[in-house]
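Researcher: Please translate sequence to structure tokens.
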Amino acid sequence: MSRPFYFDPILDQNISYVELLQDIRKSPCLDELIEEKCFYTLFKKLIISILLDQQVTLIDGYFTQNEKAHLPMPAKLSKYEFDLNSSLKTEDDFINELKKPKINWSLTLYSSGTTGLPKKVVHSWESITRHIKVNEKYHDSIWGLAYNPSHIAGVQVFLQAILNQNQLIRLIGCNPLSIIDVISSYKITHIAATSSFYRQILPISIKIDSIKVISFGGEKIDQNVYNSLAIAIPNAKFKNIYASTEAGTLIASENEIFTIDENQENYLKIQNNRLFIHQSYLDNSENDDNSWYDTNDLVEIVSTQPLKFKFIKRANTIVNIGGYNVNLSEVKDVILGLEGIKNARVYIKPNSVTTNILLCDIASDLELLESEIRGQLRNLLVEYKIPRIFKFYKELPLSRTGKGE
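Model: Translation complete:
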């Protein structure tokens, strides 16, 4: 029996590696541009580009026309014709061909960068698989896909799974109430996700023994989320993985404190409490090799020998409200600390009088009153940091990147 490759509970797709191989053989050509809403079709096209050792451009199939209009797309995109029937006779042939080093293959993604404008980012096979672990001991892993596969974190989860012939189970976009059932039914062993994703599936009323590794996305970890997961998923090892679209995976930790060791000092540094990556570490280097790329992430140094730090916030979470600087992350953390609140999104809306006004979406299973929320916040925040408008939901939809912000 063929190993299972991908299950999508939303589209009711259950694909084996043999079926994947058959679909690849039937495909006569591939456009360099991959733009798909169907995750399985995206995976298939990405695999074909790897097998052909050809460059490919990947954009989110859910981008709006306005978003796509601002993407710095190539002037000309290629179409590749191929016949893989003779070279891929068995499932083992297929996997072995995938694992071979790629000379010409490259993947173009689009990052918001530090300005919020789309930025073209190019990865070689070497850079994007730098931290992918391929080993017989990972052969029976089952991955929960909680990241959008058109973004760097989703691509790396996909590669980790397929290069080890693992099964991928779609979790992103699923109803939060059904996610625990899917995890339990398919005995998922590994999940990489944002704190926002984990927050939306809490509380977990059953013990889940199958999960071996839970990974966070290099962000500030909500300790309440961490503690709740540790109780419900007792066999899991926790990891915090910092990655960026520009550099891929950079550094990992078992908690929110990261260590820069001697091997990493050449490409990571902290200056004025901001994390920088050496330009030579980026495949898509557009600047001088001696320059440093500003990640726009603010950190707190915990110790200097060795250099240890934890992430505080993104620099662009500071906004102007009526002449005052407001840290959106601070406001959100305070609101999440209130009793009965499962999740929160704090954001701004342009205003002609105050430049911006502050808004907040709250997820709760309780019937909360805005007046009660405001009353509690007045004891915790100065008035200009309290959102002007609150909206209440049972669940907050996650963004395309799997975040609740």
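Researcher: Any highlights?
Model: The chain has eleven helices and 24 strands.
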